[in-house]
Design brief:
224 residues, 8-stranded mixed beta sheet, two-stranded antiparallel sheet, 12 strands, globular, binds cytidine-5'-triphosphate, binds calcium ion, flavoprotein, metal ion binding, ligase
């Protein structure tokens, strides 16, 4: 590689990042989606690359340019993202799940455009696979960094996710009310088993650099 194999805090480390929303079809013209811009995940991919990593970025539908030197795989649905992550898994040392994956999808997408008839319409939804939980349960297992987007009880919910998914680290951010999603600024509470660090409000690009530095520090304790 042009970048020396061991240059930078993540030199030679194979990093896979998920980013953006997923989009779940209701019918040929309609989807269930969310407000994720993908900007945090793209900034993490760029920062990991700058730290010397070999980066694969698995991106839901977003309007963002691919960071220089990063391999990008575009996906649409949670099922597509799940497949792409599993196929990258054998060559992943460090996994960062920054995507806002849909938790539910229509149980059966209609092949035909739904017509408006009744006054109300109920959609049957089913759970999507939890990509991060599955990666973390996989053996051998990459170093796993998750996100927790919360409107309430930020730290308690993030600690619970760190434990439930057996993650190495989690980055918690408040969302809603002009925070986090659809914003260019953010703030993160980064947690791991024995510690925590607050990354105060900054641009997503600056936060991504700080988060990657912190992740690299923890990663190198396990893989010197
Ligand atoms: N995640 C994932 N696959 C899913 C859902 C979530 O990989 N199907 C990942 C996200 O990328 C994030 C972490 O899991 O890194 C937590 O996502 P979040 O939505 O905050 O939590 P959930 O576990 O989905 O729980 P809930 O939405 O109920 O809070
Ligand atoms: Ca969720």
């Amino acid at each position: 590689a042009a970048l020396g194999k061991h240059k930078g805090p993540l030199g030679g480390v194979r990093v896979t990042v998920t980013a953006g929303p997923t989009r779940e079809p209701i019918d040929p013209v309609r989807v269930i989606a969310n407000r994720s811009s993908g900007r945090m995940g793209f900034a993490i991919a760029a920062a990991a690359r700058a730290a010397g990593a070999r980066v694969t970025l698995i991106a839901g539908p977003v309007a963002l340019a691919t960071p220089r030197g990063v391999t990008r795989v575009d996906v649409e649905t949670a099922a597509d993202m799940h497949r792409a992550v599993l196929s990258a898994l054998p060559s992943t040392d460090l996994f960062v799940a920054a995507a806002a994956v849909a938790d539910y999808r229509p149980a059966a997408a209609s092949a035909h455009k739904l017509k408006k008839t009744a006054d109300t319409l109920a959609l049957a939804l089913e759970r999507t696979p939890d990509i991060l939980a599955e990666v973390s349960a996989h053996r051998p297992r990459p170093f796993c960094v998750g996100f927790a987007a919360e409107t309430d009880d930020l730290l308690a919910n993030a600690r619970a996710k760190l434990a439930a998914k057996r993650l190495d680290m989690i980055a918690a951010n408040r969302v809603g009310d002009g925070l986090g999603i659809e914003q260019s600024d953010n703030a993160l509470e980064v947690l791991w088993d024995e510690g925590a660090r607050s990354l105060p409000r900054a641009s997503k690009e600056d936060l991504a650099r700080e988060l990657v530095a912190l992740v690299a520090e923890r990663y190198r304790l396990i893989h010197p």
